[in-house]
């Protein structure tokens, strides 16, 4: 398209009543108005808008058969040009817009007819041995646009050009003209690459496919190689397991087979993306029709499943029925979600799992079991809840379920592919997060019974599954090694996804210890799988797992593996280093200490690795932080006690049960207080200097103990009589020298302060001291003299004041008690 500065009326028909505004959008957002004018026809297929005020063309264009001129609103007509430029015409009335649109469509129809006549008039040369090179050249020159390819495709289909090429191919094979056969193969590939849907469906017809496959057996890129495609097609046989009464469905089944054969067997190297997508699209639409037919006839599915379920049927019929079910499931994978969901649910409701279970029980037929597991894998990949619900329903009335058969087969099967496939199916049964990594299952709702199934599995079937690990100390056979490796992967996934559910069974059966034994196996891949299980236990950050690892010395076995792999510097050695990096990042003090101790015992060159040096440093930092925290806590406590002072200490003895009169009594200073204040301070100072605190009693508490006498009155009893002394007299008796008491205390407790002054021993809170009273006849005698008390401290009334007396205990064996009867402990 070009713009012209002046309007030439040659070849243009003016329509003055079609007045329009022209708009253009280049960036997809902003529309620019180019001007207002009248539409004129420019030649047979072109149009232009002439300005109504100037002698110029605002815009001109030619219709294109591949463009769509779509009306918008009532007066707008828009389209997109081939170079991604959007245009729009705004008319005064809807009638004018409709009239212009009809002219556009008529111009497109004339253009299509013209192109078709031109191409038909220039036909491809007649297929002969002399013209084959010319046909190849002409296809290369005239098939550059999709329009030309579509027209040639129509011509080839209409004139049956493929039959003429096939006749030439037979002639060349009889004459053994190898070069002509190579050119015919190249011509046939160019015809297929026209990417026309109708032509591809034409190539899928039975009479055409065999000829096309024969020509495509020759390829100029591989002149010395010849395919055997016709032989494969001739020996193929269609087996109708159950009758298909609809001829159109039967035709689609055959067409799908031939197109799939061309796509996957004949043309895998030559297909471009467009042709491959077209073939896949044709096959998919046929598959939808086939599945819809079977879903509309549930009796057909039921009959097919019955052929598998009934043991009385011949083996040949069962195999064909299994393959038909497998084909239906494979077809469903390429269809829409709704169609696929309906098929799988219909199969499950009609007894699919019961039929598959009968085949799994027959361990003698390996091929049938392989087909069964292929069907099962496709069902589980889409929706594992179908099988979970079936197993839970079986578990209510039977001890043996479908899951038992899967586990038993996993234990006895041979071959790496089958072992891996079964392990993957078991993982899909347990995995609740597959939808995050599998786009197919993101459309499936979450199974509400997943928790019930997981409880059933971990409580009743986990030990059955891991029995090979519990029975075999060191697997040697190839299948046993692979089976142990897959079991380790399953355990790792279970710990990662369901740590709390699997923990009890895992630890009570000592299964991690059996896994740790695999670290000494010669198979490096098995060692790596076992190490991943232990690492997952560490990553769970569960104290039960950590204590179990410490108790069973699993870290020492990992260090042994690291020492064995150190010189190899392989993946297992890197995994061991990563394991200890995880311990550092986890910063579990007990696990760190255990790892460092085992590293010290291990010796060797491992300690020089940066990871293990960092392991030691992390432990040292933890010890240093712990010591600093303890010292800081003690310093804060001492500072707090020092700032409280004497009044703070005295208030600290107060009780919540003390009434106002008692509070006034203890807070009121008397003459004795003022007289003896200095004497008390002096004696306290002497005591602190001369009498160190006994072992186990801090100096801070000893100082508090020396001031305790300021708070209470005590009752001092002698043999046969009871006399009450004043509080201050009792205070002096605690601090004054008392040789008799010192001797008695030394004899009874063995605790001499060393300076003639003794600190009263302290009983911890809640300690029962009744045994001491029972052992002392003097205490029993004093108890009988003073009477029985109801508590540690009893209140005695007198005319002048109220005093508190304690239960009769000897001074050197007395425990300091508060008003409410609890032992005071600072």
Description:
It comes from Thamnocephalis sphaerospora. GO terms for molecular function: protein phosphatase activator activity. The protein is of the alpha+beta class. Among the domains are: 106 residues, Pleckstrin-homology domain (PH domain)/Phosphotyrosine-binding domain (PTB) (PH-domain like, Roll); 167 residues, no CATH class; 149 residues, Leucine-rich Repeat Variant (Alpha Horseshoe), CATH 1.25.10.10; 154 residues, no CATH class. Helix content is 61%, strand content 8%. It is built from 37 helices and 11 strands. The strands form 3 sheets. A 7-stranded antiparallel beta sheet has the order 4-3-2-1-7-6-5, covered by helices on one side. Strand 6 and strand 7 form a beta hairpin. Helix 2 runs parallel beside helix 5 and helix 27 crosses helix 29. The chain is extended. It starts with 11 loop residues before the first strand and ends in a 20-residue tail after the last strand. The N terminus and C terminus are likely disordered.
Layout of SSEs?
Elements: E1 12-25, E2 31-42, E3 46-51, E4 57-62, E5 70-72, E6 76-80, E7 86-91, H1 94-121, H2 132-142, H3 146-159, H4 161-175, H5 178-192, H6 197-203, H7 206-215, H8 229-235, H9 247-266, H10 273-296, H11 298-309, H12 315-333, H13 337-349, H14 352-361, H15 366-382, H16 385-395, H17 402-412, H18 416-430, H19 434-437, H20 450-465, H21 467-471, H22 478-497, H23 499-508, H24 511-517, H25 524-539, H26 543-551, H27 554-565, H28 571-586, H29 589-602, H30 610-652, H31 660-667, H32 671-690, H33 699-706, E8 715-718, E9 721-724, H34 727-735, H35 739-749, H36 770-775, H37 777-786, E10 793-797, E11 802-806
Helix pairs in contact: 1-3, 2-5, 4-5, 4-7, 7-8, 9-10, 10-13, 11-12, 11-14, 12-15, 14-17, 15-18, 16-20, 17-18, 18-22, 22-23, 22-25, 25-28, 27-28, 27-29, 28-30, 29-30
Organism: Thamnocephalis sphaerospora
Protein name: Component of IIS longevity pathway SMK-1-domain-containing protein
Biased composition (Basic and acidic residues): 641-652, 765-781, 809-826
